[in-house]
Amino acid sequence: MTDDQRQNMPAEAEIPTRYGALRLHVFTDAEGKEHVAAVAGEVRNQRSVLCRIHSECLTSEIMGSLKCDCREQLETALGRIGQEGGVVVYLRQEGRGIGLANKIRAYALQNEGADTVDANRMLGLPDDLRSYKLAGRILQDIGVLSVRLMTNNPSKISGLSNAGMTVESHEPLICDVDGLASGYLQVKRDRMGHLLPGDWRSPTL
Ligand SMILES: [Zn+2]
Questions:
Q1: pTM over the 0.85 mark
Q2: Less Cβ around it within 10 Å: N or C end of the chain?
Q3: What distance in angstroms lies between residue 6's CA and the mean position of ligand 1's atoms?
Q4: Which of 4, 128, 176, 189 is the catalytic position?
Q5: Domain range for residue 168?
Q6: Which of 130, 141, 190, 191 is labelled catalytic?
Q7: If you measure from the C-alpha of residue 63 to the centroid of ligand 1, how many angstroms do you get, rounded to a whole number?
Q8: How many domains does the chain have?
């Protein structure tokens, strides 16, 4: 196979997982970063597809950090689509988009008493650099017509809508939170507009 032939071959395959069979589609962005859509069941030309847009969190998902609940959210979302069908879009945008090194620098400041929002500001970084344009394009590429979004973050709903993907409805992603992450979640609620399970009210788009 030539380089050109390989480049033109879709990067997708079904793999067995603890959540059931998932079809992984890999998308490479302009910077060369590889993002993944994990699909369970049939989503092409479907409406109201159960969907989670998840941003990479190496510290939680790989290292077992208890500073946030990303690993639990990812596992809960994969479990849900494994049972009900749907898609998890996994975006390689560590630390709300600031990158791993800056995230670790921010943790060092937090260890000295700053909260997650203040730490980013002290480093001269915005609160949240994540872009959902890419997620919208990935969902369109795999043929999803509209989504039922699992999120506790209202800005994700508008971000995805602005990216051209219809959000038919949304629902909270509830998972068990370890005590150590609860302080971080309080800051996300109080300073970044996230909703915790007890805060959730009827959907407003
Ligand atoms: Zn995290």
A1: no
A2: N
A3: 34
A4: 128
A5: 19-93+130-193
A6: 130
A7: 10
A8: 1
- For the chain, 205 residues long, give each residue's pLDDT as a single digit of tens: 888 888 778 899 999 999 999 999 999 988 889 999 999 999 999 999 999 999 999 999 999 999 888 999 999 999 999 999 999 999 998 876 788 999 999 899 989 988 888 888 888 877 665 678 899 999 999 999 999 999 988 888 888 999 999 999 999 887 766 555 566 666 666 766 666 655 544 444 3
Residues in Cβ contact with 112 at an 8 Å cutoff, skipping those fewer than 6 apart: none
In a domain, 148, yes or no: yes
First vs last C-alpha separation in the chain: 48
Residue 202 lies in a domain: no
Q: Which tokens go with 185?
A: 């979640």
- How far is the centre of ligand 1, averaged over its atoms, from the C-alpha of 68 (Å)? 5
Mark whether 18 is an active-site residue.
no
For residue 28, what are the β-bridge partners? 34
**150 lies in some domain:** yes
CB neighbour class for 171 (10 Å; exposed up to 12, middle 13-18, buried from 19)? middle
130 is catalytic: yes
